[in-house]
Amino acid sequence: MKIRFKLLLLLLLVSIVPLVAVQTGVLESLHSLSEEIGGEVRSELVNKSSVELKRLVEDHARVLSKQRKIVELNLQQLSAELTAWIEEGTMFVPPEILIGISAQDAESENERLQQKYGQPDFVMHGESGINFNYLGYDSGRHGTADRIIPQRSTDVIFPLFKTIENRNPDLALWIEANFISGESLTYPARYTGMSMGRMMNAPQPQAASIIPENLLPAWSLPKKDPVTGRTVLTASLAIIVHGNIVGSVSIDVPLGTLLSGNNHLNMFSHNIDSMLVRIESNTDSTNDVEIVAKEISGTGSKTMMHMWEPPTVQTMLSSSDSVLFSKFKDLLKERKSGVISMPYKGRDSIWAFSSPDKRGISLVLILLHDDVVKPAENAKKFVTSVISQQYRNTSLVLVAVVLLVSVIAFMLSRRFTKNILILAKGVKRIASGDFAAKVEISNADEIGELADNFNKMVPSLQEHIEIKSALDVAMEVQTNLLPQSSPELSGYDIHGESRYCDELGGDYFDYIKPYADQDNIRFAVGDVSGHGVSAAMLMGSIRGYVRARSLSRGTLGEVLIDVNKLVAEDTCKTAQFMTMVMVELDPLKNELRWVRAGHDPALIFDPGQDDFTQLEGDGIALGAVAEATYAESCCFDLDAGQILILGTDGIWEASNGDGEFFGKERLWRVVNSAKDLPAKVLVKTIFDAVHTFTGRSKQEDDLTVVVVKRNN
């Protein structure tokens, strides 16, 4: 990257980064504040709505209970008067307190009833309809002997039915009396218009009430009234004549009237689910919550008419939170009121519930959290829009700053980069091999100092390149001094290799054939003290001495005695030396002879043993003492499967980061694990194990290994 761009980046970092950091911090704080306030408001709205919803559902349950008691009180009065009427016959006179006259005039009363039942108060001949001025009577098609109702006296009891409806216009839809004789009385009367007479034989608007088996009022589940289409609850009570139950009285109560208090739930939301439920026991001792009626959304203005409907098929209430729903069912079974927050149709909701009576029917109101927290969400959206606007304003400022800084950076960069471009041209000339390149910069600043150092650097660089070229040549020469291939010997697998830590090294190995008329072969491994050029030069000299002396016959000891004298003359002033081990293999006898010159013993690996066998022997390093003597050691038989290993101390003295040595025990484990592999692979395995152990990318010492395997 050019300096002008670096300068641009620097100026941008200095000017923009603080601005961005501060602005980002402010905006992040606003975001956090918005989230925190929104969360608090949402939580507060949910809690407040839960409390209010619970209070409303409990208040409504109390109102519902009172309305139930009013209906039951009217049933008791109606049952008592019907009992007296049946027992006294035509002599019965209803008490004035129960048949008070309506305060409204006849025209207003008829208009009210027509609106309530949705029908006119008279019909033409042959048409069916509802008559509000008569009490409907159905004989049940039984003979007169079986009748319970006094004959031709329904006019006497009609005011009683009329008064009950008039005093409870919202609670009483149909008032009916059913008898075991099959007879029934219904108000208002439904008839087929043969005449305007009082004999009504048309079917009644609902099924006959079940005659209770006890003296307590009974309530039915919600059902659909076939005439008005409204959902009703039927309350029934027995009629007892002379101690015997002869029938029952019933009042159909519009469910919408009982639950009319739900209208003010709109203060929370128009999407509240209102329902009546009951616990349904299963055969497996578990319980389900059955919906017996549910408020549905109407069209137009919201009224209670036709708003509550019983399900057409059995419908169960459920929630995805089984733990909370189980708690909800337990509270319903105990007929308790409460409020619980749990999912409804996959969305978090508030469930408020209460049991208005002991019939096992509970009122449940379900309000979605999303509807409750709309104000909080709207506030959050407003804050988010303000933050977004602030982001846009900040972006415009940043763009202006970037443009201004870019102009300044390019203007300043031309002044600063002029001399740098001169230096760059000089570097390119050097890279192309022109070491006569110089730069002419007279500035007294850092650029001028850099130019002076550049001019001084060129000669030194040329000298280092020449040295590097010489080292490359020397490395190639030394590499060629080492064996380029392994000897082939029947019954044996042989491989040797050296890896230097620098370009040049002091490790040495060689294969020597001492006798032209024999297959004997000598393996020499040596290690010159130190590294680098001096070690490599001494290694090359000793290699030449060993090869030259091996042309003449003589034992291994005699060879090293003569070589040592020559080496001592070369190292008398440098204090260098070389350790060496030389092993001669006689393939006819499978016999080994060896001599040591201060080097670690050669190792014999026997698969049948648990350790190496070392080829011991005395001898001082070559070049240390000119008159040193070396004796050949004999003999060791190399059996089938055994492996001869010659190496330098770079193998077992390699250390890891903890200062621990690789050691010959690890070497034994490596050889043991790879003993069946070819000699070349075994050598590579040893090198890889050392490299893995040290954990370094560059080795610290030269590594040399020669492996001689006698095949099975």
What does this entry look like structurally?
This protein is of the alpha+beta class and 712 residues long. It folds into 4 domains: 3-43 and 375-419; 93-247, no CATH class; 260-372, Beta-Lactamase, CATH 3.30.450; 482-710, PPM-type phosphatase domain (Phosphatase 2c, domain 1), CATH 3.60.40. The chain is 41% helix and 22% strand. The chain has helices at residues 3-88, 106-117, 154-167, 255-258, 322-333, 369-372, 374-431, 446-481, 532-550, 556-571, 649-652, 663-673, 679-694, and strands at residues 128-131, 136-138, 174-179, 184-187, 189-192, 218-219, 223-224, 231-241, 244-254, 273-281, 287-295, 308-309, 315-317, 338-344, 347-354, 361-368, 492-499, 507-512, 521-528, 578-586, 591-597, 602-605, 612-615, 633-637, 643-647, 703-710. The strands form 5 sheets. Strands 2, 3, 4, 6, 7, 8 and 9 form a 7-stranded antiparallel β-sheet that branches. Strands 10, 11, 12, 13, 14, 15 and 16 form a 7-stranded antiparallel β-sheet that branches. A 5-stranded antiparallel β-sheet has the order 17-26-25-22-23. It holds the Pfam family SpoIIE. Residues 414-466 form the HAMP domain. Residues 61-88 form a coiled coil. GO terms for molecular function: phosphatase activity.
